[in-house]
Design goal:
alpha/beta, 7-stranded parallel sheet, two-stranded parallel sheet
Length: 325
């Protein structure tokens, strides 16, 4: 039986990953500061603890693991990452977790570890044109990420590969591009664009108005959670270390994403653009390398995932609505 350790198992991607690994028949230990918010974990063991503590990292790696997935990080959407107010926490917390986990794996001789990096490592100067961003893996240098979150992710990539060279670890590094889906954060300030727009549309009556940061022309690609998990597990079980993009090549402007959500919801709303953090002007996954090395790339249409996600968020909004007086 395969055994797996999932760090960050209380989060969006981590909780979905635990469920997938269990469906495959694996024995799974999860660890996080908190349990999943929206459903009970399916992990065989779930350790509540802080991976910034090296003693906890040593404790959770106390047995052989075939696969270790390091997803734990201090993160959020544009409202959390791009304001600058959380930079020190983001860099310190995430770097500390990675340093601790790599040392624990080195000492326990646990080689196979997946690290979730981010498209935020790509240079801002290659993403000024919303129609033609360059996010090929080789474009990461000369380095110029658009946020301290991106700089920490890039440092940690180098850290994992240094442990590969010096300590015989076998890391797998993926750069995620805007993963979304049900059971993700959808309110509170750390949500990403798909969830935020689904919430706004769900809360707004037909004919009403929603707000969008910036001019709405900025572009992104978004990847549904199931395809993210497929890419992760394929990379982990391959002979390729990466780094490699895991994302969709279907690029869309934020305004058009809002109109897509409206269409899914069956509503006609107007958009008001307001000042706010937006990050780079354009970003889209370049999937040439993942297709060449893994013989696979994400292919599901964005609308399919948005439909599933909107239905789930609409239900959350409805369940939280106050009862009639």
């Amino acid at each position: 039986m395969t055994s797996a350790l999932v760090c960050g198992a209380g989060g969006f991607i981590g909780s979905h990953l635990v469920r997938r690994l269990k469906a495959e028949g694996a024995w799974v230990r999860g660890v996080d500061l908190k349990r999943p918010e929206f459903r009970e974990t399916e992990a065989d063991e779930f350790v509540i603890g802080d991976l910034r503590d090296p003693a906890l990292c040593a404790a959770v790696t106390d047995r052989p693991f075939d696969e270790i997935y390091q997803l734990a990080a201090d993160m959020g959407g544009a409202g959390y990452i791009f304001t600058g107010a959380n930079d020190a926490d983001v860099m310190r917390n995430s770097a500390t977790i990675n340093l601790n986990m790599l040392e624990a794996c080195r000492k326990r001789r646990l080689r196979n570890i997946f690290y979730s990096s981010s498209a935020c490592i790509y240079p801002a100067y290659n993403q000024d044109d919303p129609e033609n961003p360059d996010c090929s893996e080789a474009s990461a240098y000369p380095a110029a990420p658009d946020s301290e979150y991106g700089w920490e992710k890039l440092f940690s990539e180098r850290l994992y590969f240094a442990y590969q060279r010096n300590h015989d670890l076998a890391p797998r590094v993926a750069r995620f591009h805007n993963i979304f889906g049900p059971e993700g954060t959808w309110t509170g300030g750390r949500e990403k664009a798909p969830a935020a727009l689904c919430r706004k549309v769900a809360l707004t009556a037909d004919g009403g108005e929603i707000e969008i940061w910036g001019d709405g022309v900025q572009t992104r690609s978004f990847l549904y959670i199931d395809e993210c998990l497929e890419g992760m597990t394929r990379l982990m079980r391959s002979g390729f270390s990466g780094p490699v993009n895991i994302g969709s090549e279907e690029m869309i402007s934020i305004d058009d994403l809002a109109y897509l959500v409206m269409r899914v919801a069956g509503k006609k709303l107007t958009i008001r653009h307001i000042p706010g953090p937006i990050g780079v002007r354009g970003r889209r996954s370049d999937n040439r390398l993942i297709h060449a090395r893994l013989g696979w790339a994400p292919s599901e249409a964005l609308e399919v995932g948005i439909r599933r996600t909107y239905r789930w968020i609409e239900r959350q909004v409805r369940e939280r609505a106050p009862a009639p007086a």
